[in-house]
Amino acid sequence: MAQKARVTTKKVKDRWRAKEWYKVYAPDMFSRMQLGETPADSPGSVMGRITEATVQDLTGDFSKMHIKLKFRVHDVRGFDAHTTFVGHDLTSDYIRRLTRRKRTKTDTVVKVVTKDGWTMAIKPMAVSEQRIQASQETAIRRIMDEEIKKAAAESTIGEFVRKLIMGELSRAVSDASRKIVPIKRIEIRRSEVLATGKMPVPGEETPINATEPKEEEPAEADAPAEEKPTETDSADTPSEESEEATAEAENEEPKADDVEESSEDEEKQ
């Protein structure tokens, strides 16, 4: 009988057992909050990975849940992966809610350089309250280009990102555009970091998600104590009780002894 051929099976190596979990942290502008964890078999494979988080996750502001932030891992220390900001984006459903019928959406792309050398591409979006002409759209694009470049040149990367996601830049552009045509809404729908510049020094700037201290309410002033009358005043000025006592004494009827004495005197006479 021919010997049966032995079937050799290769042992499949479990790759998950060789992987470790690395914690991903946000940059200093967001207080190095933990964004999540990612598995990898070596620190080199973690480098360059991109993770997303909403502004609500980092600041707790529910009104900013439609803003998505993107971070890229640029440094791995042990099992801690540190990231840098690479851009942001608005959710598609939020943009669809802004664009309605009989309105004009004006888009443009602005390339800016911050004060510390970061190069970014900013993509603002203006929604008018009514349909506008092409010349008005051109004027709005020019205003958006000027205002965004001005804000970037005066700010560091941390300050500029704060203006992007907190609405300060949108309000500045909206106020400047109202002289052209009534604007319903202006949003920075997307941003992208094209080239990094000087890295922020830890602790040099206030984090974006830092809570501002509440002003203490001034303590209420104590009510002035009532002045008590002095002894001299009480002695000189008769009180109400003494006046009432004298009035009652005058109105009292004569006693029985006094009535008897008066009757005896009348009999003698």
Give the SSE map:
Blueprint (H helix, E strand, L loop, with lengths): L19 E6 L8 E7 L2 H4 L3 E5 H5 L7 E11 L2 E11 L1 H7 L6 E3 L2 E4 L5 E10 L5 H20 L3 H10 L1 H10 L5 E13 L35 H6 L3 H11 L5 H13 L1
Parallel strand pairs: 1-5
Antiparallel strand pairs: 1-2, 3-4, 4-5, 5-9, 6-8, 7-8, 8-9
Helix pairs in contact: 4-6
Account of the protein in words:
The protein has 269 residues and is α+β, with helices and mostly antiparallel strands. Among the domains are: 20-90, no CATH class; 91-200, Tetrahydropterin Synthase, Chain A, CATH 3.30.479.30. Helix content is 32%, strand content 26%. It contains 9 helices and 9 strands. Strands 1, 2, 3, 4, 5, 6, 7, 8 and 9 form a 9-stranded mixed sheet that branches. Strand 1 and strand 2 form a beta hairpin. Helix 4 (134-153) packs across helix 6. The N and C termini lie far apart (177 Å). Mean pLDDT is 81; it is low at 212-224, 228-240 and 253-269.
